[in-house]
Amino acid sequence: MRERFVRVGNRCRESGRLHKRTSHGSLDGRADVLANLRGRRAEWWAPAGGRCWAIGLAIRTENLRKVYGKDAEGREVGLLDLSMEVEEGQIFGLVGPNGSGKTTTLKLLLGLIFPDSGGGEILGMKLGDPAYRERIGFLPEEPYYYDHLNAIELLRFYGGLFGMGGSALETRIKELLDLVGMWDRRYIRVRNYSRGMRQRVGVAQALINDPDLVFMDEPTSGLDPIGAMQMREVIINIRERGKTVFLCSHLLKEMEPLCDNVAILARGELRALGRVLDLLTTGDRFMVRAEGLTPEVVAKMSQGAQKTEQEAHLYTAYFETQAQALQSAQAVSEGGGRVLFLGPQRHTLEEVFIEKVGG
Amino acid sequence: MKSKNRRWVGWIIVLVLVVAIQPLSDRVNLDRLILGVNPPTPWTRILAAGGKDSKLAVTGVTGVIVGAVLGGFREVAASMLWMKSHELWDKGEGASVEALWVMRLTTLLDPHWLEPWRMTGWHLAYNLYVETDDPKLRAEFLQMGVDCLKEGISWNPDRYDLYFELGWTYFDKVRDFEEATKWLIASIQFPHPEFADRMIAHAFERQPDMPRALDWYDYCLKRNPTDGTATGATITIRERYMPAWRLMTEQRYDEALAAIEKWLQVEPNSQLGLHLKATILEKAGRLRDAYVVWKLAADTHALNAHAAAKVDELGVKLGISTPKSAQYIFRERQARQGRREMKVDIPME
Amino acid sequence: MRPIYRVAKATFHEAWRRRFLNGILVFAILIIGSSWVFAYLQPGAELKMIIDVSLGAIRFFGMLIAVFMGTRLIPDEIEKRTIHTILAKPVSRAQFLFGKYLGAAATILMNVALMGAAFLIVFAVKAPQFKAMTTESTMTMEFMSGNLVKAVILIFFELLVLLAIAVASSTVFSWIIASIFSFFVYFVGQMAEFFKQLANPERDISHAAQVLLATIYRLLPHFEIFDIREAIMKDQFMPWDVMGKIIVQGIAYTVIVMLVGYLFFNEREV
């Protein structure tokens, strides 16, 4: 419980851009200079008592459209007029069920496929401009690589594509393999890799050029719980260093604690876009959950409640204000019951998702 | 979209390049033609053969296409077929005709391999020739053998082997020494063994054309002073035949006959002597006597088809009807039809 | 340029780890190494046999390598999605395509060089003995070794053109269709001269048919030009300027085909 609250708190601060950019001095004040130079839109945001940061857009799309055909009911299949903006320095999640157009979006942004209409910008450069590929990284879903190479050779190859070489590249490779925990296994050939090892090396290759924007397609799919946790740490670490991460996934449980902002796609259309916090805390209801109650206590607890629920021995009551909820909890406590939870009612991303997609 | 424009620019560049390399392509083809390194598959000939002879065309076209499908192994396929043809040939009888088709196919698959041309020509003019007693059929086989060699020459006009083979076929089988000298002379303009020069002299003395025979023997002796055959032949011709020849050219036919008769008493069956005697009699206009001498030559030498053909030739002039020899039929047909076979330019000096 | 080199290098290294390519090479070298045994099958034509079998093997197995490697260069990358990570890096599609092509070309160069070396060794060992047995008068040896080296060089350039056709067609078709297409073009290209003969204005065909046949002739790669077997059989000197023109024509055709391949690949969705 405690951890959860802490994390929520963290996210609040992070979405306010108060993370430790100052520790990476290079970003300090650089963004606005770059913003002016590249003529990119800059937003100024000043949290109370904080400093001013230039916030550029990592990704902007405008009516991006790619249609593959029509389904039996005559609806167009593909990506339909996607317009969205992703600011720099955050973890952005693109979520949606299978076939909703996530991978299509990703491929369009990477220039692997070409839009029917519409366009966009990545790091201030037009979609399809080869220049921005210098500054991005990409981890594909279920990545495969030249499987005759080992981890070192593979990273040397990818580094070479950026024109990197020499000791700088070797240092970078060591750094990355340490980061993803592959340094000990660096001489094993890719063909003998487990799914998780491929994913790890995939992350390393995506980061070889120290990109400003990293695209990741289903980064945790197929990983065991520990692997998934390490992957989340890596992703958060990237964001900590002031980079932008663009995630695609249908694993909502994993996206929820990770992302600052999400976009929900369904059938190629954007159904919701915004801060995870905003999406999850819809409405101002507070809830109290308790157990070990006598019927009298239940009646007291439910006083003024908008709604009550009972599941076996668990009772839940929803209130309009925090004061009412506190009162209810007080009643439970006095009646000898045990308060299990007291706080704002939170939807899970899954609930929001089902509501948005199903509706 | 701008990429559409780029696409069109790209296709236009492709088109320009395709047009631009054509002169180079033509130049390369011309160079190869000049060098004599031509495309090796005789497509048009195979198709042209289709009209005349469907069996050849079907076998040939199928075979060549299979050969092409084998890609680099066409020549190896030709080698394999060649061995197959030997096998068929050795079975004899009906199989030999089949063997000939296979041989023909071999020559199509690898027309620059000389052995199949030579062997096929030999099989036709020699081996099939003796399978029959019908002079007309024999003449047909001679024609096929000669045609085969001539086609081989048309594919390999700058190599000695087939010219010599054709010259030899005329010399030994057709016994048409005038044709033989032509092809033998053509053969020696390419690297050749020593006996080829001497063959020309032999062909001239059998025509007979003694001065030219002497010239060629002299040429042989100049090339190789130790050539025993040429030395001996020179002495014989000078001693025995040149006096008679000279008298003949001076139209003193009786003296010429006396001169040759002197040597014929020493060696009555000398073919050269009999040829010379008959020629003198022909020149003197004594055709009936010449006929008798040619007949004597033909009778004493079963293989002297030259004499046999002369007998037939004079027999027609004299109104004597005898069964004609294959060689006569062959020559007759060639004379009548002109050069019906492939046009081959004989490269003379 | 650097990405081209990197992609080419990776392609080259990967090719040497392909089992079927190694298998083809080993088999080809076995055949070439034993070509002198085949020679005994053809008394009187031993030299011809050893040359035909060996050059035939180099051409045939080189063709297999070029087509099967060429048609799988790009489709394999797309199928395994390795192309995604590469094209997401600062590598243009042109660089990627030409890098792959150059890597495959280097592989073919190595293969042809190995097969050619095996052939020349066998020939050097066996030729003196077979020369004495040969019946054809003009099988002299004056330009023989030079011509054999030239023949192997030309086979390499022939395979470069074929490789370009394989790679370019695989940007449009699946690799199986592309393989069939490449073989087809190769075989029809072997008889390009045939279309020229058919388009001959003296033949009794309609003008439209003539134009069509002539166009086919102009568009087809002329694989015949790489065949100098006749010069070998006649032991005739093959001038370097003609060699140069043939090679330039081969390279020009390769460039055209690769450009076409690029135009398709550039619009291909991966």
Keywords:
heterotrimer, B: 349 residues, mainly alpha, 17 helices, disordered C terminus, C: 270 residues, 78% helix
In a few lines, what is going on in this structure?
By secondary structure, chain A is an alpha/beta fold.
Q: Can you identify the CATH superfamily of the largest domain in chain A?
A: P-loop containing nucleotide triphosphate hydrolases
Task: Provide the spatial order of strands within the biggest beta sheet of chain A.
Answer: 8-9-10-5-11-12
Strand content of chain B: under 5%
- How would you classify the helix and strand content of chain A by structural class? alpha/beta
Q: N- to C-terminal separation of chain A? A: 31 Å
Q: How many DSSP helices of chain B?
A: 17
Helix and strand element order of chain A: HHEEEEEHEEEHHHEHEHEEHEHEEHEH
Query: What is the ordering of alpha helices and beta strands of chain B?
Result: HHHHHHHHHHHHHHHHH
For the secondary structure, the number of strands of chain A is: 16
Please give the largest β-sheet of chain B.
none
Oligomer: heterotrimer
Overall form of chain A? globular
Tell me about this structure.
With about 350 residues, chain A is an alpha/beta fold. Chain A has 2 domains: about 80-265, P-loop containing nucleotide triphosphate hydrolases (Rossmann fold, 3-Layer(aba) Sandwich); about 280-355, 2-Layer Sandwich (Alpha-Beta Plaits). Chain A contains 12 helices and 16 strands. Chain A has helices at about 1-15, 30-40, 100-110, 150-160, 165-180, 195-205, 225-240, 250-255, 275-280, 295-300, 320-335, 350-359; strands at about 45, 55, 55-70, 75-85, 90-95, 115-120, 125, 135-140, 215, 245-250, 260-265, 270-275, 285-290, 305-310, 315-320, 340-345. Chain A has a 6-stranded mixed beta sheet, sandwiched between helices. A 4-stranded antiparallel beta sheet of chain A has the order 4-3-6-7. Chain A has a 4-stranded antiparallel beta sheet with strand order 14-15-13-16, with helices on one face. Chain B has 17 helices and no strands. Chain B has helices spanning about 1-35, 45-50, 55-70, 75-90, 95-110, 115-130, 135-155, 160-175, 175-185, 195-205, 210-225, 230-250, 255-265, 270-285, 285-300, 305-320, 325-335. The termini of chain B are far apart. Residues about 50-55 and about 340-349 of chain B have low confidence and may be disordered. Chain C has one domain. In chain C, helix 4 packs parallel to helix 7 and helix 7 (about 145-170) crosses helix 8 (about 175-190). Chain C is globular. With about 270 residues, chain C is mainly alpha-helical. The model of chain C has no long low-confidence stretch (mean pLDDT about 90). Classes of the chains: A alpha/beta (about 350), B mainly alpha (about 350), C mainly alpha (about 270). Chains B and C meet through helix 1 and helix 4 of B and helix 4, helix 8, helix 9, helix 11 and helix 12 of C.
